[in-house]
Amino acid sequence: MSSTSSSQMGQLVADKHVRYILMAEKKKESFESVVMDHLRMNGAYWGLTTLDLLDKLGCVSEDEVVSWLMTCQHESGGFAGNTGHDPHILYTLSAVQILALFDKINILDIGKVSSYVAKLQNEDGSFSGDMWGEIDTRFSYIAICCLSILKCLDKINVKKAVRYIVSCKNLDGGFGCTPGAESHAGQIFCCVGALAITGSLHHVDKDLLGWWLCERQLKGGGLNGRPEKLPDVCYSWWVLSSLIMIDRVHWIDKAKLVKFILDCQDLENGGISDRPDDAVDIFHTYFGVAGLSLLEYPGVKVIDPAYALPVDVVNRIMFTK
Ligand code: GRG
């Protein structure tokens, strides 16, 4: 990172962010909680991973989280966004990631969860998100990440899954949600992440994609998700993780991006927003802190750019049987 000192650019108010996350969980009647009710599993993953990155996972009751999480599992093996809702591959990955944070994956019936995910693969190698069939490279990443954590990648046709992802590659080096769809930083993370996990990064034109990704940095230091769009803290994750996986992260101005993220903090009440002076939320709080982790900000644990989990958690999974 270039030498801009933290005194020139403000500090991460980590304790306030921890308090913001713990309070958000308690405010069940708030507008934010009500509109997020159906995707509470994602919210829990964002909040708990942020706490772990700040070394404060111990502030939550593991038993409470895990027993609620298990009420979200469906007969099929998949997880829903909350108790009583329908299962979806999106929430299934979040549930597995949360259990990984707590080192509790072994409470799962791994065969059942992995079968749920594997059955969502289609003939052309793509993945549907649930029984209703929507196809998106987000679901390819989720399936591959989830099955890799569960050590069950052999349950799917990896060759076909990779071929489908490669068919979503565009002339600009980026990837879209389906073949021919516009390149978008979020989808690029998914495709590059899936290719990294399956050892298939040779399909990426690293210089071409690196160029497209580093052009996402705007004058103010923040990143956008595609040309002509506004910067947003969440792209600190989608763009930066992709740049790291293809070994081109030195092509952006890291110090300017750190400053942009720190400027999006609510210094009084904690939380991080999409852009300076906007309202904070748990999604941007997570991606801001995760972005700072990728930028090697002091005091934040190192996150794995492909699995979106702290590196110590990923190592624990990979080095245990
Ligand atoms: C484990 C980190 C992790 C992810 C799981 C769900 C998922 C896999 C990936 C989502 C990737 C994605 C598509 C991210 C983009 C999210 C986003 C901010 C979309 C907004 O799109 P637009 O078009 O915004 O509204 P822009 O910024 O283009 O104007």
In brief:
GO terms for molecular function: metal ion binding; Rab geranylgeranyltransferase activity. This protein is mainly alpha-helical and 321 residues long.
Descriptive overview:
The protein is an all-alpha fold and 321 residues long. Helix content is 48%, strand content 0%. The chain binds geranylgeranyl diphosphate. The site of geranylgeranyl diphosphate has 15 residues, from helix 8 and helix 10. This is Geranylgeranyl transferase type-2 subunit beta. One of its GO terms (molecular function) is metal ion binding.
Estimated share of beta-strand residues = under 5%
Secondary structural class: mainly alpha
Q: How many strands, what sense, and barrel or not for the largest sheet? A: none
Order of helices and strands: HHHHHHHHHHHHHHH
> Mean of the pLDDT scores?
94
Task: List the ligand species.
Answer: geranylgeranyl diphosphate
- Tally of individual helices: 15
Structure summary, number of beta strands: 0
Shape: globular
Spans of at least 5 consecutive residues whose pLDDT stays below 50 are 1-7
Report the C-alpha radius of gyration, rounded: 19 Å
Percent helix, as a range, is 40-55%
Distance N to C terminus: 36 Å
